[in-house]
Amino acid sequence: MIAVPSLLGISLILFTVLALAPGDPFEELATNPNVPPEVRLALRAQLGLDDPVWQRYLHWLGSMLQGHWGFSFVSRIDVDTLIWQRLPVTVAVVGASLVLALLVALPVGVLAAVKPYSWFDRIASTMAFVGFSLPTFFTGLLFILLFSIKLDWLPFVFRADISQTGWAWWWEHFKQGIMPVSVLGLALAASWMRYVRSSVLDVVRLDYVTTARSKGLTEKVVILKHAVRNALIPVVTLVALQLPQLFGGAIVTEQIFRIPGIGSLLIDAILRNDTPVIMAVTFVLSALVILFNLLADIIYGWLDPRISYR
Amino acid sequence: MAGSTRASAIAEPLGQRPASASLWAEAWRRFQRHRLAYWSLWVLGLLVLAVLVGPLVYKVGINDIDFQARLAPPSWKHPLGTDDLGRDLLARVLYGGRISLAVGLASMVVAIVVGVAVGAISGISRGWVDAALMWVTDLFLSLPQLPMLLVLIFFFRDGLKAVVGPEVGIFVLIVLVIGGFRWMPAARVVRAQFFSLREKEFVEAARALGASTPRVVARHILPNSLGPVIVAATIDVAAAIILESTLSFLGLGFPPDIPTWGRLLFDAKDYLDIAMHWSLFPGLAIFITVLSISFIGDGLRDALDPRRVM
């Protein structure tokens, strides 16, 4: 229920942007000599392009909610089929990067915080700075240069139509997924590692951790069961707040590795003035972000029983 | 806080400080103790100097075409090599640096001005104004940043181009759009500062002496909340440089005849196998700039927070 006002707000912002935009989807018809002007005007009126803005917004919102997302100007198929075709790849890449980022950031962050200002911590922190100062498009190009061109280990063009079946199919997908996922995942891991580190550092100095130690619990139990679980609470919020950035990163990675995902769909649509697709993709991305925010709230409540949503 | 962990790498034990120092001299002294930040300042200074003075000394045009030296690797004649039309890359990287740094600084100014205004208004007023402004801030935080940037730039590019010319138009647009999507962290930081500062005794004293609310804000609260704002501003410059290069890399930034760092990478990415110097140097330029700015931000965070010295 919390998500509804935000979604409405986002849809309003999106629609305002489009309503203010100077581009006209009827430009093509206007310059086409075979279409008489009165036919064009009749079409405009029929499609409701001359209605007042608020009416168009309500109309658009109504059909978005009913699943009528319109018709792509360029590829002449329904926008929702187009998006459903592309979405699984993006979700797979983003999801795998998320998992990779957590697998790297959590242990490194915790280890760095357990022994602050040790050599491990210094190296990890410096690496984190390097990681988030490297733009994803540059790391992507470096990876291609190293692993595809110099070493020839991994393919750098993502193929959606892999002919093998069974294990070979999975293996091919794994191989072509390594580079995009690690580019995106390591960039994320760099900033998350710092969150984990500072958050654990805040917690391990608290009295209850000292109490746990003096009870004679092993260091492993103290850190994992007592400190880390509490330290994760602020990390979850920060991670959720970074998700919009994650989808932004997915657009860049998809563009570099030519992954047929929703991000490259957006870029194609933008370059071809395909308004319905642009609107729908941006809306879907916003909805995904809000969904992840909601998920974060739920995990939050599970990690910290003191928080309840009434 | 129990325990003996230092708050930061540069925190020092009591008793070593000189008898007295002004606030800024003290901050500078502490900044110098963060060695990476200190050296980053030098690196960034040199880079800015090179970008500003370089084109005056190194007199090779950015558009001098030389088909004899197409895709030439670095040599004495072309220190960073040439691109597919034989244009000198050093000249282009230097020129691109001016634009990237200018975009970074200008977007930072936009983001900080908007952020401080929103944060200050929301921090000093209670009730529905604060609630509404924070709702808008949260809404902007949950917008998918990069898709929105792409959509906005695509739709409004032609309009602004017609009004103020192609180069200035796209510059203004990129700066406004990046700034318009980066003000939220500053707003939150300023609001949080205002919440604690407005209850302090010195603010109460100023009020008791009859100072109006604008005066209290401008003369008493705002100067005291400047530290975190400076840190946020530093990070914003780095983020804006990355965002601008990302836009250019996706082909939606500056027009092809203006060689920004991202645009150079965009042009170079199809020649990775035969001319790797072409993508390497602009990428390194972005990396070094952003890395040094990040380190400087880290140093400033330590230096400007008086609580860091225990």
Protein architecture, described:
The complex is a heterodimer of chains A (310) and B (310). Chain A is an all-alpha fold and 310 residues long. Chain A has helices at 3-20, 27-31, 37-47, 53-65, 79-114, 119-133, 136-150, 167-204, 207-214, 219-257, 262-271, 275-303. In chain A, helix 1 (3-20) runs antiparallel to helix 12 (275-303), helix 6 packs across helix 8 (167-204) and helix 9 (207-214) crosses helix 10 (219-257). The model of chain A has no long low-confidence stretch (mean pLDDT 78). Helices cover 69% and strands 0% of the residues of chain B. The interface between A and B is large, with 56 and 49 residues.
Q: Give the structural class of chain B.
A: mainly alpha
Content of β-strand of chain B: under 5%
Cα shape of chain B: globular
* Quantity of strands of chain A, as a count: 0
Q: Helix-strand pattern of chain A, N to C?
A: HHHHHHHHHHHH
Low-confidence sequence ranges of chain A = none
Distance between the termini of chain B: 11 Å
Largest interface: A-B, 56 and 49 residues
Largest sheet of chain A: none
Task: Report the end-to-end length of chain A measured between terminal Cα atoms.
Answer: 12 Å
Q: What share of residues are in beta strands of chain A?
A: under 5%
Task: Note the main attributes of this structure.
heterodimer; A: 310 residues; mainly alpha; 12 helices; 0% strand; B: 310 residues; 69% helix
Short description:
The complex is a heterodimer of chains A (310) and B (310). Chain A is an all-alpha fold and 310 residues long.
How would the blueprint of this fold be written?
The complex is a heterodimer of chains A (310) and B (310).
Chain A: H1 3-20, H2 27-31, H3 37-47, H4 53-65, H5 79-114, H6 119-133, H7 136-150, H8 167-204, H9 207-214, H10 219-257, H11 262-271, H12 275-303
Chain B: H1 23-33, H2 35-57, H3 89-124, H4 128-141, H5 145-164, H6 166-180, H7 184-197, H8 201-208, H9 213-224, H10 226-249, H11 261-268, H12 276-304
